[in-house]
Specification:
The complex is a heterodimer of chains A (398) and B (130). By secondary structure, chain A is α+β, with helices and mostly antiparallel strands. Chain A contains nine helices and 24 strands. The chains are: A alpha+beta (398), B alpha+beta (130).
């Protein structure tokens, strides 16, 4: 496409500092582009904000617990009964979102409830609640203490770093159940014989779906994370830029992912929520928002993508997914999914999201507000996310 | 309506009297009734207004607690993230994801207290209060 507009990030940040930046959300930009066209909009708009608020299992916190007297080299750690990983330095631990209490019955009585896990501890922690720490140690000359039990709050910890190895999946499958019994999955409860179709995305508001080739997002990108400020740390686990894409460049299956990090102490329990999936496990809902600088028309063309133009594969979670066959039943657009009904194999199937579209809207709005008021400058990534345009297929990724 | 039966009263026919003595049409939606144990019946009751009041008074005089149905399942709005997972689990459409806001709404009158939503809600924003 003809590129007439060429802005720099520095120039856009100058406008933000002056309180003059023109900022729209990824939803608002769609109607502006259809009314005014790409060129005029690209010249006018400086930043487009995106948002997503959904379950993100690959999340957790690095905590430094501080040393008691005498000092301790923690070997076995539980926070509110939930197991944390102590295989780091003496008082450093990692608490993962899906970790469970030792006594949790899991799926022994099926389907298990998973009422309290790592994600719930993280929510309680960021809400300022008192958390019980129980630690044991084998003791050393320099760290003689062998057990510790104490209550603490987030503010007392020297450090609490949210570090999520995989968040903000760029697109994801639509889950259905072709079998005769209800199944319980991380995509929710799936009723038998195509009883429902569940999806998890914010579609046209989604960060990576608005920058499909990662032209502006990469290591060091400053983002809205869990209610505060965070940064993209790396590409996330299972990042697959070579996933198949529609002619408009948007992946039509799960593709890129982000590893994100930030200081937990400035985040909010509104955007870090402990969740339970019946028959599956505990997890964490994470709110993320990423601003996209409109540097040229091509970037604008990508952020103006609408739900009608984003497609996802429908996959059977009773057999095909667990057995890893890679079989895809069909393809649907997010516009159709969001309407509440899709047609698969001649059957009208009701749909439900697991990701809060309303929450995504609110996040994009908050980020728009921060930027418009000059409180949030965009950062230039050290390098953008790895991207492979050759279109190599990698089957079985999801 | 949800009728709560104390164990002392559970073995006496009560809904029979609603029909025979108070001319009310009843439709039992759900029942958990066992001998010598507390129980409850979820029932639709229709009829003339004064018959209804008299019928309810009769039940209450027997020690049976009578509550409108929507009070039993409570949607704790402050906890709801509007993810929409519940909308496809609710069999009666009492929990809906409204377009274009994409926000969840709980319509109490449609709830039949099946309790499927309680465990389906990832943040436990649905509560059964008895």
């Amino acid at each position: 496409m003809l590129i007439l507009v060429k802005k720099t990030l520095e120039a856009i940040n100058e406008k933000i500092r002056a309180g003059e930046a023109v900022v729209l959300t990824a939803e608002e930009i769609i109607s502006m582009v259809s009314e005014r066209g790409i060129e005029e909009t690209a010249a006018t708009v400086d930043v487009v904000t995106t948002g997503t608020f959904g379950p993100m299992c690959s999340s957790g916190v690095f905590l430094n617990m501080g040393h008691p007297k005498p000092r301790i080299k923690m070997n076995n750690v539980h926070l509110n009964g939930v197991e944390a990983y102590a295989g780091l330095a003496a008082v450093d631990v990692y608490l993962g979102a899906t970790s469970l209490p030792n006594a949790d019955p899991a799926n022994k009585v099926f389907p298990g409830e998973f009422n309290y896990g790592g994600g719930h501890v993280i929510e309680d922690l960021v809400a300022g609640k008192e958390i019980l720490l129980e630690a044991t140690a084998y003791g050393t000359d320099c760290y003689p203490r062998q057990s510790l039990e104490k209550k603490f709050r987030l503010e007392e910890l020297p450090q609490a770093i949210l570090f999520n190895p995989r968040n903000a999946y760029q697109n994801y499958s639509v889950a259905v159940n072709l079998s005769d019994r209800t199944i319980y999955t991380y995509m929710g409860i799936l009723k038998p014989r195509l009883g429902n179709a569940n999806y998890s995305t914010s579609g046209q508001l989604s960060p990576l779906l608005n920058d499909p080739y990662y032209r502006t997002i990469g290591m060091g990108s400053k983002i809205f994370l869990g209610g505060g400020v965070g940064y993209v740390a790396w590409h996330g686990t299972q990042h697959s830029p070579w996933a198949t894409r529609s002619p408009n460049g948007v992946p039509n299956t799960g593709a890129g992912t982000l590893a994100v990090t930030g200081d937990l102490k400035q985040m909010s329990p509104q955007w870090l929520r402990g969740i339970s999936f019946l028959g599956y496990g505990a997890s964490l809902m994470v709110g993320i928002g990423i601003p996209i600088p409109i540097l040229d028309e091509e970037i604008l063309k990508f952020v103006a993508v609408s739900d009608e133009e984003i497609f996802a594969p429908v996959i059977d979670f009773s057999e095909a997914y667990p057995q890893g066959t890679g079989e895809v039943i069909g393809e649907v657009s997010y516009a159709d999914l969001r309407k509440g009904e899709i047609t698969i194999k001649d059957k009208v199937v009701p749909t439900a999201p697991l990701s809060s579209y309303h929450g995504a809207r609110v996040i994009a709005g908050i980020l728009k507000d921060w930027i418009s008021r000059g409180e949030f400058l965009l950062s230039k990534p050290v390098f953008t996310l790895p991207c492979d345009k050759e279109g190599i297929n990698y089957n079985g990724m999801l | 309506m949800v009728l709560h039966f104390p164990s002392t009263v559970v073995e006496q026919p009560s809904t029979y009297h609603l029909v025979k003595d108070y001319n009310l049409m009843i439709n039992i939606l759900k029942a958990n009734i066992n001998p010598r144990k507390e129980g409850f019946i979820v029932v639709e009751i229709s009829g003339e207004k004064q018959d209804f009041s008299a019928g309810v008074a009769f039940l209450q005089s027997r020690g049976i607690k009578v509550h409108p149905l929507e009070q039993e399942i409570v949607w704790v709005e402050e906890r709801c993230t509007h993810c929409g997972a519940c909308s496809v689990i609710c069999p009666t459409g009492a929990l809906v994801l409204e377009r274009p806001d994409m926000k969840v709404r709980f319509i109490g009158e449609k709830c039949i207290v099946c309790e499927h939503c309680i465990k389906a809600c990832p943040v436990r924003a649905m509560e059964a209060r008895y």
